[in-house]
């Protein structure tokens, strides 16, 4: 039996409030979160503390607050129900930061030195990077462990961080003679749509930070914008292939087929069979209609919510109180184990 199996199942995940969420965030995360809330208890946070590690957010309080509300609105518009699944911003639950300090003392420099995301984001000037960026994975571990979460939906870029969270949990349990105190959280790997690629370059992941807005479909885009971006999406002069082997050297074609399959919730093979031999012009029309049908209602609900920031703030506040009710006793036990309280 795994360490996670000895704990009550609980899902924890979150996104940074930096830049607008896009189709890749929806297919790779939000769509799956909506399903997960029907399978086990979930907590979904807006990780605004993590956002301060980004230069685009640091020193811009109004932007961080607006983006926090927008990400929360996206969660709700996509179908996460805050009445049963708390949606809160990380900074409103102080236990995250308090546990992160204890875990900073458990984690080892060698472990953090191996984190590839820090190397990628700090580039050639590691000495100029913030300490927050370096210890980002430890705060992520605290985000998970403060609730004793057992399952964490992760993309490829976060797998290494989750492995670190497991290592930290195991070391804490060993160091403080508390076997199984923290679960070793299990990754939840989802299916098609996990890696949605850029509409301008099928070899690059769709990104919030890509310079060209035409490279992604934002969750705030209206029907006209969605259709226009799909029409302009990069393709090649050949017809759609008859099987998946025909995608060799054709990343843009493969990406659009994968997007259609994920939105339609159909196997890729079925979509290939449906459109085999057709030109991209006809396929793009079908993809555009599907994307508008699935995404335009989300954009409309996001706009409604953003027009009433008070409603979002009330949801965040109420949800943070629910999250703290879970986190406080866990942190109290941690304090007892390390000797801060009797």
Structural write-up:
- With 342 residues, the chain is mainly alpha-helical.
- It is built from 14 helices and 5 strands.
- The protein has helices at residues 23-36, 48-51, 61-78, 95-106, 109-113, 116-122, 131-134, 136-145, 159-175, 223-232, 251-264, 268-275, 280-306, 309-338; strands spanning 11-15, 42-46, 87-89, 151-153, 186-188.
- The chain has a 3-stranded parallel beta sheet with strand order 1-2-3.
- Strand 1 (11-15), helix 1 (23-36) and strand 2 (42-46) form a beta-alpha-beta unit.
- The longest helix is centred in the last third of the chain and has 30 residues, at 309-338.
- It is globular and about 70 Å long.
- The relative contact order is 0.15.
- The model has no long low-confidence stretch (mean pLDDT 92).
Largest sheet: 3 strands, parallel
Order of helices and strands: EHEHHEHHHHHEHEHHHHH
Number of DSSP strand runs: 5
What would you call the shape? globular
Please state roughly what percent of the residues sit in beta strands, choosing from under 5%, 5-15%, 15-25%, 25-35%, 35-45% or over 45%: 5-15%
As an assembly, this protein is single chain
Q: Low-confidence parts, pLDDT < 50 over ≥5 residues?
A: none
State the secondary-structure class.
Answer: mainly alpha
Mean pLDDT: 92
The tally of helices reads: 14
**What portion of residues is helical?**
40-55%
How large, in whole angstroms, is the Cα Rg? 21 Å
Distance between the termini: 31 Å
* Strand arrangement in the largest pleated sheet: 1-2-3
């Amino acid at each position: 039996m795994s360490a996670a199996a000895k704990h009550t199942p609980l899902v924890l995940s979150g996104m940074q409030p930096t830049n607008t969420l896009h189709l890749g965030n929806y297919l790779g995360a939000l769509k799956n979160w909506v399903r997960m809330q029907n399978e086990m208890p979930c907590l979904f946070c807006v990780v605004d503390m993590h956002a301060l590690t980004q230069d685009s957010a640091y020193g811009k309080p109004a932007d961080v607050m607006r983006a926090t509300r927008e990400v929360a609105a996206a969660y709700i518009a996509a179908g996460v129900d805050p009445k049963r699944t708390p949606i809160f911003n990380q900074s409103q639950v102080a236990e995250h930061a308090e546990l992160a300090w204890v875990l900073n003392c458990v984690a080892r420099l060698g472990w953090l030195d191996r984190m590839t995301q820090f190397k990628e984001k700090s580039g050639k000037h590691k000495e100029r990077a913030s300490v927050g960026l370096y210890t980002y994975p430890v705060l992520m571990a605290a985000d998970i462990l403060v609730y004793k979460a057992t399952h964490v939906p992760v993309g490829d870029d976060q797998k290494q961080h989750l492995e670190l969270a497991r290592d930290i949990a195991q070391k804490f349990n060993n160091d403080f003679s508390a076997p199984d105190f923290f679960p070793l959280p299990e990754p939840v790997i989802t299916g098609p749509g996990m890696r949605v690629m850029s509409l301008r370059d099928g070899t690059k992941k769709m990104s919030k930070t890509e310079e060209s807005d035409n490279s992604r479909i934002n969750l705030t885009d209206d029907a006209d914008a969605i259709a226009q971006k799909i029409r302009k999406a990069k393709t090649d002069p050949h017809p759609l292939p008859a099987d998946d082997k025909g995608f060799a050297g054709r990343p843009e074609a493969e990406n659009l087929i994968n997007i259609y399959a994920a939105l339609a919730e159909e196997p890729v093979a079925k979509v290939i069979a449906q459109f085999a031999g057709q030109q991209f012009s006809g396929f793009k029309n079908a993809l555009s209609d599907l994307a508008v049908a699935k995404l335009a209602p989300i954009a409309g609900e996001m706009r409604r919510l953003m027009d009433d920031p008070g409603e979002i703030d009330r949801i965040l506040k109420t949800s943070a109180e629910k999250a703290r009710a879970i986190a406080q006793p866990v942190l109290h036990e941690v304090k007892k184990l390390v000797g801060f309280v009797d």
